[in-house]
């Protein structure tokens, strides 16, 4: 393949033969590395991150792409949905995630209201995320409806990750978080959306809450990678909200989430033990004191 977006491992600037996850390269991952991974048929993981310290843990674990998602609304800022998240909030937390990492490609989400007015508004806000926070790419929701925005950002030199299927910023229109792309008409619309964002120049596309068979078809058709969340096993990459996958989220999590730890229990236990030590006089002990 000769297209610059499908650079193989011998292309200057591409990670030289290095896997996105498990590779030994230490420089920051770029969108060219992501394209090369699709060429190699390599699957890769993506997690959300909202602060420097957590991001540094994921960076050290080798996660190649971190998304400063507007899921920070629910998972970090205490809102009921992603809708209230602002550019100021995304910019502040994206900058922290960039500072906390050395290798991961950092993708900053454009929040609701930051690009719906049109391409010029999208460019203004995406430019802010790149300049003020230092992200390597931005993400925005919508397929055909967001193609103009994607085109202008890509022309301006800002890599764009698209997001189709269930787009949580439209929760009020969806009336919840239903699976998308079910039925012939909806499936055809999803395929049109996927092609539209690829044609507009997106370097990857998130497929959220889409039947596995449909996500597999999109993954076969597109030359850019698909990043699944509740979209089955055939996507090129998988993303989870970190607080869900690590067991920090309280209450019910979506069915597609796999919990890899129970941090809420671990952290709560540490807090209770500290409190009991203070109340009982066991902390601070002699070794924690100065004389
Ligand atoms: O904001 C977010 O975390 C996202 C992911 C769920 C893809 O958009």
Automatic annotation (TrEMBL):
Organism of this sequence: Streptomyces mobaraensis
PANTHER family listed in its UniProt record: 3-METHYL-2-OXOBUTANOATE HYDROXYMETHYLTRANSFERASE (PTHR20881:SF0)
Principal localisation: cytoplasm
Pfam families per the UniProt record, alphabetical: Pantoate_transf
Enzyme Commission (EC) number: 2.1.2.11
Localisation per UniProt entry: Cytoplasm
Superkingdom of origin organism: Bacteria
Needed co-factor(s): Mg(2+)
Catalysed transformations (reactions): (6R)-5,10-methylene-5,6,7,8-tetrahydrofolate + 3-methyl-2-oxobutanoate + H2O = 2-dehydropantoate + (6S)-5,6,7,8-tetrahydrofolate
The keyword Magnesium belongs to this UniProt entry's keyword annotation: yes
SUPFAM superfamilies linked to this entry: Phosphoenolpyruvate/pyruvate domain
GO function terms (MF aspect): 3-methyl-2-oxobutanoate hydroxymethyltransferase activity; magnesium ion binding; methyltransferase activity
Record note on cofactor: Binds 1 Mg(2+) ion per subunit.
Pathways involved: Cofactor biosynthesis; (R)-pantothenate biosynthesis; (R)-pantoate from 3-methyl-2-oxobutanoate: step 1/2
Family per record: Belongs to the PanB family.
Protein name: 3-methyl-2-oxobutanoate hydroxymethyltransferase
Sorted UniProt keywords: Cytoplasm, Magnesium, Metal-binding, Methyltransferase, Pantothenate biosynthesis, Transferase
